[in-house]
């Protein structure tokens, strides 16, 4: 399973990348706004900076919702760097645009996936990735990880090549459960990635080893 970091924060991207386990980055308009980035030129420049930091797929989301607008915006984003993946919302014109990008060799990430039907449609259009929003599904009282398992099963039966990118991850357990359910990628906040490191017995064990090491140091 690939690890992406889900942020537009450069310090966090660097910290995750320094671990040596990072395969890519996902962003969305809310994450970009959180970093105080204003204006289309600044947005393009920010994506360029991220592409310079991480050697892997970088999802950059369009904000147009009509076919022509999505294509125009997506082409500009894709021109920034060969690692840019154009992130397109799961709407009618979005599906049309994903098909167009697929036919023109541009990678896509179909975002805001909340059902298996949406994931089938995105795969039919040739999306490189689909992003089911695990945390938001859990928040609404359903089981997000179950959706990952369902999509994984369908894609494997049907032979779809689209990769399942588990998004809206809230904690380390989500990452483990998504790995079990067949996600190809997990995009996670830095805290959730670092959460995988933690176990109290590791801390207790290390403290004891270091204490005992003093006896022969
Ligand atoms: C990433 O691709 C998604 O936009 C992101 O994971 C959504 O996360 P949230 O539900 O925490 O906003």
Secondary structure elements and their pairing?
Elements: E1 2-6, H1 10-18, E2 24-26, H2 29-34, H3 40-53, E3 57-61, H4 67-78, E4 84-89, H5 92-103, E5 108-113, H6 116-124, E6 129-132, H7 134-139, H8 144-158, E7 163-166, H9 172-181, E8 185-188, H10 190-195, H11 200-213
Parallel strand pairs: 1-2, 1-8, 2-3, 3-4, 4-5, 5-6, 6-7, 7-8
Helix pairs in contact: 4-5, 6-8, 8-9
The structure holds erythose-4-phosphate.
Erythose-4-phosphate binds at residues 6, 26, 28, 111, 131, 133, 135-136, 167-168, 187.
Beta-strand proportion: 15-25%
Please give the order of strands in the largest beta sheet: 1-2-3-4-5-6-7-8
Give the SSE order as H and E letters: EHEHHEHEHEHEHHEHEHH
Separation of the first and last Cα atoms:
40 Å
Task: Specify the overall morphology.
Answer: globular
Query: Helix share of residues?
Result: 40-55%
Describe this structure in words.
There is one protein chain. The chain is an alpha/beta fold and 217 residues long. Helix content is 52%, strand content 17%. The chain has 11 helices and 8 strands. It has helices at residues 10-18, 29-34, 40-53, 67-78, 92-103, 116-124, 134-139, 144-158, 172-181, 190-195, 200-213, and strands spanning 2-6, 24-26, 57-61, 84-89, 108-113, 129-132, 163-166, 185-188. An 8-stranded parallel beta barrel has the order 1-2-3-4-5-6-7-8, surrounded by 7 helices. Helix 4 (67-78) links the parallel strand 3 (57-61) and strand 4 (84-89). The model has no long low-confidence stretch (mean pLDDT 97).
